[in-house]
Amino acid sequence: MIHDLTEGDPQKTLIGYTLPMFISVVFQQFYNMADSMIAGRFAGEDALAAVGASYPITMIFMAVAVGSNIGCSVVLSQLFGAKAYAKVRTAVTTILLTGAVLAAALTMTGLFTTPVMMRMIQTPENIFADGALYLRIYIGGFVFLFLYNVTTGMFNSLGDSKTPLYFLIGSSLGNIGLDLLFVAVFSWGVAGVAWATFIAQGIACVLALLSFRKRLREIESSTERAPLFSFSLLKKISLIAVPSILQQSFVSVGNIFIQGLVNSYGSGVIAGYSAAIRLNTFVITGFSTLGNGVSGFTAQNLGAGHFERIRDGFKAGLKMAFLVAAPFFAAYFFLGRLMMQLFLEDTGSGALQTGVIFLRIVSPFYFVAAVKLVADGVLRGAERMRQFMASTFTDLILRVILAFLFSGLLQETGIWLSWPVGWSIAAVMSWIFCQKVLQCGKQANIETKV
Fold first, then answer.
1. CA 180 to chain centre
2. Which residues of 98-121 are buried (b: 16+ CB within 10 A; e: fewer)?
3. Which of 63, 89, 161, 278 is most buried, taking the most CB atoms under 10 A from its CB?
4. Environment class of residue 165 by beta-carbon count within 10 Å: exposed (0-12), middle (13-18) or buried (19+)?
């Protein structure tokens, strides 16, 4: 169902729009964690380490998909909010045609460079072959991953966050079922984990595209035939998507440096970090999803000229993010060992304790990360991409530099300490930039009324 985010109570509207998106990411992260859980439990610690070793590389490909999702969603939200329905149709076909070409090119590049990327992050020899196998299969299904994420962004831009949720629930449950079949029953190991994701993502992508095609026909437009491609709209989308892709990619590149540092401590630390970072990513992706909801809300209301609703949306987004942060902080900080035992048995190898220490260090700062990511949502929706990138790159650069500095003093524990410092400084920057946007919107609203 298509929803107009420029009408109704801002808080209720944002919650109704964002909640399905958040539930979607819960399922998405759940089946990502299920990959690691099943690999660790049924194929052993080395299998978990192999999946984890390639994780920062897979996140670069995910960064392209997510960044494109954000760019498409913001521009389409603005067009939809302005009731420019013919341009919405043209933007959709422009996005899909460009996205298919980009995804195919990245897939070919990734397949040919897999060994180089695995060497680059200093993957230990005992898990290299399995890690490379997992990565090749994952990259082989990137076209599905990319188009699914872009289609999800297009659904969200029309105010429909429920339809993608249904597809994701089905995909997640299917992925977990296939994981158990391929790994626990057929004993395919790491390859089984990768193929389960490939198949589930492929089916979800095809169904989402077919459903969106039907939804697009519901949008009113003039009798004039809308062009299939527009360079001007592609440029407008690129101005949002490219910085978002770069931001996501640079974060992933930074994670590659950190993963390389982690890999130097051996497969036990890799396994512990792999499990803990999946738990951490579950939370951070939740905040990012709430931020994306705020982006769509901001963009639609900006397009409609309803500036006063943007401030209300920001406040509502912060409330939701803090409600998410509280239970995860409690679970990770006080029950970290229990959470890690979902992935690993307490064998005394040190892997489990590594993850527990990571969670206790970073979880108190989830409230800080929440502020940054919700504020970033306003910045993206208002097309303040330079400010958005400035705060994000500050976080990235600090985390990478401090990880190397602190590890020289405190070994692997020093790496985990870089997260709170980077988050804190970047959150202050995003907050300041966001307040300037909200103040400009308030002033514009006053001038409009005058």
1. 25
2. bbeebbeebbeebeeebeebbeeb
3. 161
4. buried
